[in-house]
Amino acid sequence: MKYSLLLPIGPTRPEQVVPFANLVQWTAADRLWLGQGMVLESQHLVSWLAGLGIRVPIGFGVSLMPFRSPYHAAVEARSVAITTGRPAVAGFGPGAVSLQRGLLGRPYPSQIGAAKEYVRIVRDLVAGRTAEAEGEHFTVSAALIPALAPPVAVGLGVLRERMAVAAGEAADAAVTWMAGARYLADTLLPAMRGADRELAAPLRVSAIVPFALAGPGRDPVALASAACGSHIQLPHYRDTLRRAGVEVRGAADEDARALVDAGVFLYGSAEEIHGALGEFAAAGVDEVVLNATGVALTHGPKAAADDLLRMLRGVTPDAESGDGGLR
To answer: How far is CA 76 from CA 125, 147, 219, in A?
Structure first.
């Protein structure tokens, strides 16, 4: 199982990203993942880093579909691969229904249908094929201008079983968030593996896992609330947690405590967290993406970088396969 890291801040200046990109260069971390940028667009940040000479493998987990057409998404994803010179993972998700209504005027008629149409179009385009689609949500007849580029894997953000099936059918990769190891093993991964797959290559699964190392002055409930609190106010996240057996009732501290108790948010020593992450490997996850957002928001970006470094010191790359593994 590979280990990567998620940019744990919402940067307002591009230089704030440099320490975390450098961690990918200096450690066994396989990839730098970025979420949807709300001040600085994530794809632009990566190009800025490449201009500095910091060219590391990138994953986007996930970019929100209402912000860009499938064609624009394909152009951006391939641009990242070209500017970094490294293979990229471009993950997408439909976002909240309220976001869709605010940006598009109405929600997608089908969340699953829109997601599958979107990734199929982007996948065709970045592979150099002409995308011919006349669907319920997107109509495209176009191709990208031919250019040499490293490969782009096109992924879907997965929270619940139906989207897991969609990823298993149509995506190169699945990106999960706030999914504990048991929920992955019992529900999401069986749905992905049991899907009627359209692609020859197997689905790759990346799990974004929020964590914090234990230490003086650290409160796991406050850290979990900082990392996940805004998400668990949204109906689709609350439904996801309930399906995973995590009871959330709308009380911030109680809900955050439930995430810690259920192992959705990992807290403890580096050894304890590595042990918990072993359950993700046992479930069949290909890559764990370490998410120190809670630490960054409560104790600052330097503390988050320190936690990530301490976690990655226990990981070495496999010389033959390039996989990150505990040693």
So the answer is: 11, 13, 39
